[in-house]
Amino acid sequence: MEPTPVLEVRGITKHFPGVLANDHIDFKLTKGQIHCMLGENGAGKTTLMNVIYGLYQPDAGEILVNGQPVSIHSANDAIRMGIGMVHQHFMLIPELTVTENIILGNEVTVGPFLNRRRAAAQIRELSERFGLPVDPAARVGDLPVGSRQRVEIIKALYRKADILILDEPTAVLTPQEAEDLFKVMRTLVEQGVSIVFITHKLKEVLAVADEITVLRDGRVAGVVQPEQATEASLASLMVGREVILQVEKEPREPGESILSVRDLRVIDDREHVAVDGVSLEVRSGEILGVAGVQGNGQTELVQALTGLRAVLSGQVFIAGQETTLATPRQVTELGVAHIPEDREKDGLVKSYPIVDNLLLNVYYQLPYARRMVIDDTQAADYARDVIQKFDVRTPSIYAQAGTLSGGNKQKMIVAREFSRPIKLLIAAQPTRGLDVGSIEFIHRQLVSIRDLGVAVLLVSAELDEIMSLSDRIAVLFRGRIIDTLPAATATREQLGLLMAGVHAQAA
Amino acid sequence: MEPVTAPSGAGAELRARRRISWGELGPRLVPALAVLTAVLFGGLFMVFSGTDWAAARAALAADGAGGFLRELGPGIGKAGVAYEAMVEGATGLGYIDPTSVRSQTTMVVLLRLGERAIVFLPDNLVATLVRSTPFLLAGLAVAVGFKAGLFNIGAEGQLYAGALLAVWIGFVPALANLPALLHIPLAVASGILGGAIWGGIAGFLKARTGAHEVINTIMMNHIAIRLADWLIKSREPLILLDTTASVPRTPFIAATAEYPRLGDTPLHFGILISLGAVALVWWFLYRTTLGFELRTVGANPNAAKYAGMSVTRNLVLAMAVSGGLAGLAGSGEVLGVQHNLPPGFFAGVGFDSIAIALLAKTNPIAMIPAAFLWGGLLNGAGLMQIRADISIDLVKIIQALIVMFVAADQIVRVIWRIRARRQEEEVVFSRGWGR
After folding, report:
1. Does A372 sit within 8 Å of B290, measured CB to CB?
2. I need a labelling partner for A236 at 20 to 30 A (CA). Which of A9, A242, B125, B266 fits?
3. In terms of domains, do A62 and A162 share one?
4. pLDDT tens, A61-92?
5. Domain count, chain A
6. What mean pLDDT comes out for the span A345-373?
7. DSSP string, A155-220
8. Which of B280, B282, B300 to mutate to test binding with chain A, by most A CBs within 10 Å of its CB?
9. Are residue A410 and residue A427 in the same domain, yes or no?
10. Which runs of consecutive H residues, i.e. helices, occur in B51-121?
11. Which residues of B touch A (CB under 8 A)?
């Protein structure tokens, strides 16, 4: 007889208009275990967790805590039952201190006043017990991402959570910070906390899980023990077919310099220096990967190179021409393709049909327009041609772009950017949030365009992606390129340390 | 927790399927349903106002529900008479005793039914068309703004700006001897120019400084309305006032600047201009590269910037085109109907046009029925008032209900059980403040 699970869901079903997000999901969390919830974006992980956390009501099914059926109608209900959640996007108020954030909504008071000292003492105690170092008096806005995450975890523990849901917690961490988090998770389970760890990264699952539930298309695709699983077996469970994890890439001798950046400085929206003296060179036929934890100047670097953000100082040359002050249109016309970081916001117009999205930056050129009048027939022929070539799955070129899946949206953007003569491709987070099939497709496209002699600047937060695609890897830390390594010899550990700002000389 | 069971069986599936077919048609019908709902609410209003409530209460006590309903009869009858009169006044289609019509009125008897007959009175339809013309153009003006993501509340001011320039070109003695073939186009062009400048200023302020167009256009309205007042009324210095007239107004425009009449009716050339403008605006928005840019800036300014379009230039362009259309509407009323410009002439046409643009969901083609409906409601109101003794205020209430139901179409969606579209609609009515 196995022990009663601390948390169990039975037959959870949740419909959204047109989608069955959860289809009779069963799931058991054993006390003192780390249970990994693995699945692609859209597999239903977050929906299930939101049901457990009381943010959604299920259409069918039941939730049991310690063997007792419970009904959870709000996050407050969940907290009362000892369920705590750390969201992917932190729910902290940057202006307040760590203590204030943690006690918010659960204040320790003396009459009408806050008892900060007692609250701080309680927080210190929690932080020591679970190995989560934080300074209770620090302002959250001043803390690095890793510490903010610790604050979120302490916040849950402070509310006496013994079931902790961590939603994609490593997305914002360096590999070393992730290691630290895994240590914390170990300490937590030793002290009797049970953890649901949501992720789509296979390596992490194998590193920390006691048990793994794989979701696919809203259903449980399998429950496996980590000892019996490999990365390949998990990936095929996740996707439902065999997956090639490694990209085929022939070595290639790079040609002339296409993109040359000299001592570039760029400020962000808050007027802080985000790119602080970056110099780099990308030659034709090579992929330069820019690695780094999110928020180290990648976004601003790409915007400055594509003319979307003003340059503070320094110079940019594309194909021999200075483009430091160029407009986005001038940059595009020099033969630059740009896969933007935020495809929903910048890369497409959701309310437009696919054909108009494919024309987005050539609509004024022959043969698509003649004397400022758009030629519908030419446009439609072109659109039909490229959606076939790039395998964009849609019933029609007149379907609204917003109705496409994430993968097909990105394929549409790639189709648009690759279907004109280009010399330089700037790809920012090109596979973020995509399903494995689309990732494979985009990766193959990136390599094939490099093989055609295009210079590729690949900016990505996914270290695996950078390592498998790049010819050289530059690591960006606090707006500077801290080092550039040949991809063939770079190791995860080396890169991880660089991403954390540790420059290991002759390591 | 009570285990929740899924709605089971074939019944649920059938219901789901039925909802899908309604779901596909429903969203297209929202404006029509909004009109219908508003008319029903207006009818309820009339029933309430036409019922003798003391008698109804007495009947309820004496005969129960049947008696109560009987007492509602006169109110319902009154609502029926009112709407009948509304339709007759708006479209000319009436169900009346043909002998009651004055002999000099043109009338076509369509179908005789005993004492009464279904008749067509073309004068009513013509009056509605004339009345709808400025709404059609001004509605297009507001719609062009919406397409670029701009909320142009300034149509009113742009109407005045266009009308002022057009009336001046129309009466200024230096141009009095111009042939009509030159004078009319010149007056029309100056009307468009006046509105375009007025709108363009608001667009320029938005593009250059980020000042919100709602505030800019409201203030530009005030300036235009007061400026028109002053220009027309001022005696010292004398600017536009016709000193020989008994009421303040500008001089009449030269006959060479008047829009030609279509036949022997009040219908003027302006209606053809406005229908042409519908086609032109549609073509501009959906067929030209400029229109593509303008719509892209409205639908997603970030993507527009990414694609190399100039957001600021398009904001100015959109406001200038929008203002130009409003200016055309304003000059049309001067050149086609009034032939002079008194102060306070437009009295809210520009504001009503916002409602019309919303009613048409900013679609240029749909602007035709929307403007016709608006003009018809206004034109039919007079007869409705006489026949059913109903206040003109009620017409205004129905109009307000229509706009409310269309603009806040969630209300209609709830009433008629239409699901929200999964996709966001193409229409971006306006974005929030402070962007």
Report:
1. yes
2. A9
3. yes
4. 999 999 899 989 988 889 889 999 988 778 88
5. 3
6. 93
7. HHHHTT-SEEEEESGGGGS-HHHHHHHHHHHHHHHHTT-EEEEEES-HHHHHHH-SEEEEEETTEE
8. B300
9. no
10. 53-63, 65-91
11. 1-6, 287-290, 292-293, 296, 299-300, 302-303, 305-310, 419, 422-426, 428
CB < 8 Å to B293, chain A: 363
Q: What percent of chain A has pLDDT over 90?
A: 50
pLDDT value, residue A269 = 86
Judged by CB atoms closer than 8 Å, whether chains meet at B292 and A308 is answered as no
Kindly tell me if the per-residue pLDDT of B423 is higher than 50. Answer: no
Could you tell me if A115 and A234 lie in one domain? yes
Q: Is the dihedral of CA A483, A487, A493, A494 positive or negative?
A: negative
Which residue, A414, A398, A416, is CA-closest to A406? Answer: A414
Which CATH topology does B126-375 take? Answer: ABC transporter involved in vitamin B12 uptake, BtuC (1.10.3470)
Contacts of B424 in chain A (CB under 8 A): 350-351, 402
Decide if B1 and A71 are in contact by the 8 Å CB cutoff.
Answer: yes
> Nearest CB to A351: which of B289, B290, B426?
B426
Which one of A239, A269, A299 terminates a domain?
A239
- From chain A, pick out residues whose CB is under 8 angstroms from the CB of B5: 60
> Mind listing the pLDDT tens digit for each residue in B118-149?
999 999 999 999 999 999 999 999 999 999 99
Domain interval for residue A360: 347-420
Measured between beta carbons, the chain A residues lying within 8 angstroms of B428 are 351
Query: Any chain B CB within 8 A of the CB of A328?
Result: yes
By the 8 A CB rule, do B81 and B433 touch? no
Long-range contacts of B404-412 (CB under 8 A, 24+ apart): B404/B38, B405/B33, B405/B34, B405/B35, B405/B37, B405/B38, B406/B30, B406/B31, B406/B34, B406/B355, B406/B358, B406/B359, B406/B361, B407/B355, B407/B358, B409/B30, B409/B34, B412/B30, B412/B33, B412/B34, B412/B37
CA closest to A17 among chain B residues:
B422
∠ Cα A275 A281 A287 (to 5°): 100
Domain check: are A201 and A74 in the same one? yes
Asked whether residue A274 falls in the same domain as residue A209, the answer is no
Q: Give yes or no: residues A43 and A136 share one domain.
A: yes
Residue of A nearest to B426 (CA): A351
Q: Which residue of A has its CA nearest to B303?
A: A346
Cβ pair A345:B419 closer than 8 A: no
Instruction: Compare B285 and B23 and report the one with higher pLDDT.
Output: B285
Report the gap between the CA of A248 and the closest CA in chain B (Å): 32
* Mutual angle of helices B65-91 and B53-63, in 10-degree steps: 140
Q: How many CB pairs under 8 A join A and B?
A: 98
Measured from the Cβ of residue B204, the count of other Cβ atoms closer than 10 Å reads 18
Looking at the fold, whether A352 and A206 belong to one and the same domain comes out as no
Q: How far is A402 from chain B, CA to nearest CA, in Å?
A: 7
pTM above 0.90, yes or no: no
- The verdict on A226 and A124 lying in the same domain is yes
Tell me whether residues A360 and B300 touch, CB distance under 8 A.
Answer: no
